[in-house]
Design brief:
Elements lengths: L7 H12 L3 E4 L8 E8 L3 H10 L9 E3 L4 E5 L7 H7 L10 H6 L3 H11 E3 L11 E3 L6 H4 L2
Antiparallel strand pairs: 1-2, 2-4, 3-4, 5-6
Length: 149
Amino acid sequence: MEEKYLNEELLQTSIGVLLGDCSIQKNKSKSSEKYRLKFLQGEKHKEYIYHLHERYKDYVISQPFYDKKRKTYSFQTIFHSDFKVLSSIFHNSEYQKSIGEYFMKNNISPIILAYWFMDDGGLLSYNKDYPRKGLVFNTHGFLASLLMK
């Protein structure tokens, strides 16, 4: 397999989607430490999942899968050492999804913010008559400890 290189833009894209719904998995059956990314989106986000698939085209070997029962699209990258840097950002010593305060306060770029929002953001209210307008990031609490400091 030819060598690949996770360029800066794809690194930032990866951080953004990992702040959202994407997950990272370690290959436990091999002697070398490699990781892969797994993507899953509902069917109304079909165009977005195909956009991500195109962004990671050097790391995937199959088209996104449509699950008729769950009405979702998904794909995963190959296991590759290029994704190891993401594990060091997103996994704590117990290998749980986590992210450090220093990183969040000092390393959020426009690309990270854009992909985070596209992956897991939305309107404050989808009710057209709701008087307060706004956008939210659905963090599901994994950043709550950072925000409380």
